[in-house]
Automatic annotation (TrEMBL):
<protein>
    <submittedName>
        <fullName>Dioxygenase</fullName>
    </submittedName>
</protein>
<feature type="domain" description="VOC">
    <location>
        <begin position="7"/>
        <end position="132"/>
    </location>
</feature>
<keyword id="KW-0560">Oxidoreductase</keyword>
<feature type="domain" description="VOC">
    <location>
        <begin position="153"/>
        <end position="271"/>
    </location>
</feature>
<dbReference type="InterPro" id="IPR052537">
    <property type="entry name" value="Extradiol_RC_dioxygenase"/>
</dbReference>
<keyword id="KW-0223">Dioxygenase</keyword>
<dbReference type="InterPro" id="IPR037523">
    <property type="entry name" value="VOC_core"/>
</dbReference>
<dbReference type="InterPro" id="IPR004360">
    <property type="entry name" value="Glyas_Fos-R_dOase_dom"/>
</dbReference>
<dbReference type="InterPro" id="IPR029068">
    <property type="entry name" value="Glyas_Bleomycin-R_OHBP_Dase"/>
</dbReference>
<dbReference type="GO" id="GO:0051213">
    <property type="term" value="F:dioxygenase activity"/>
</dbReference>
<dbReference type="Pfam" id="PF00903">
    <property type="entry name" value="Glyoxalase"/>
</dbReference>
Length: 310
């Protein structure tokens, strides 16, 4: 069993409109845009990152907004719900706030003994807020939401699977332990994790496979401290039979990818070097930052990309 992985690093999804996406995360949810860059493989498409003040691992929601992209169809073989941690006693605030902003899919419930608010993103994305006692992570509070209510980072992701057996064994190999099972949902945790160390597996044997599109999670990334630990994880996964990509430089972290038995794309990402490698922390997410290989296209890219602010 591995011990290098400490929880979630980031979740990357797809959207249909960059400006709407930016408005939702920075205004409705009060997160900080920590990086404005482009898709490495499609430089005419933004890659937007939202999180806490520094974009700490375990807080980072990222998006590829593909203009006029068709909406995805929910199903199995995907991350169905991305869940954020909020302070105890704040669900009422969030319910009122999101209702006033005409956010859809609002539903309050209790799961695993935790008070929870489900809601949908602009593209039908599955989200939830869960009240967590004593989450010590410091929130971004310059988005108009007080520290008493502000999002701390990820709480968990919920994966929809027709059969959770092989994915459960993979997560155990990655260092997760089964914490509890309720109502067809298996919760796994990493002891001593980074605060974003829970994964829920939802077994849905009669649900058809998801079709990716706007509102779908593209991949989920797990955090390791540095490149040396990442290489240890890569070797262990390959020795187990997984087809793992070479290490890819993503400017703000190094990444490896592999497909899980349940069909979900996993990434292992390093905590280094971070989002302040090319911007001061005080100005994260303000300027358009381009990967070195696309710098010569800056004029064309800037002309093509939709302005994020109205």
């Amino acid at each position: 069993m591995l011990d290098q992985i400490k929880g979630l690093h980031h979740v990357t999804s797809m959207a249909e409109d960059a400006r709407t996406n930016n408005q939702f995360f920075t205004n409705a949810l009060g997160l900080r845009r920590v990086k404005k860059t482009v898709n490495f493989d499609a430089p005419d498409v933004y890659h937007l990152y939202y999180g806490d003040e520094t974009g700490a691992p375990g807080t980072i929601m990222t998006y590829f907004p593909f203009p006029k992209m068709a909406q995805g169809r929910p199903g199995t073989g995907e991350v169905g719900t991305t869940v954020f941690s909020v302070p105890q006693g704040s669900i009422g605030f969030w319910s009122d706030r999101l209702n006033k902003l005409n956010v859809t899919g609002l539903k309050t419930e209790e799961t695993f003994g935790e008070k929870r608010l489900n809601f949908a993103g602009p593209d039908g994305d599955g989200f939830a807020l869960v009240e967590v006692k004593d989450d010590s992570r410091q929130p971004w509070t310059h988005g108009g939401i007080s520290e008493d209510n502000a999002i701390r980072g990820f709480h968990s992701v919920a994966m929809r699977l027709r059969d959770d057996g092989a994915t459960s064994e993979l997560l155990k190999f990655m260092g997760y332990e089964v914490q509890e099972e309720r109502d067809g949902v298996k919760r796994l945790t990493i002891p001593g994790g980074n605060g974003a160390h829970l994964v829920d597996l939802e077994t849905m044997p009669n649900v058809s496979r998801a079709l990716p599109g706007a509102g779908s999670v593209h991949h989920v990334a797990f955090a390791v401290e540095n490149r040396a630990k990442q290489l240890e994880v890569r070797k262990a996964l390959m020795d187990t039979g997984y087809q793992v990509t070479p290490v890819i430089d993503r400017d703000y972290f190094w990444a490896i990818y592999f497909r899980t038995p349940g069909g979900i794309l996993f990434e292992i990402a390093t905590n280094e070097p971070g989002f302040n490698r090319d911007e001061d922390t005080a100005h994260l997410g303000e300027a358009l930052k381009l990967p070195q290989q696309h710098q010569h296209l800056r004029a064309l890219i800037e002309q093509h990309l939709q302005p994020l602010e109205v």
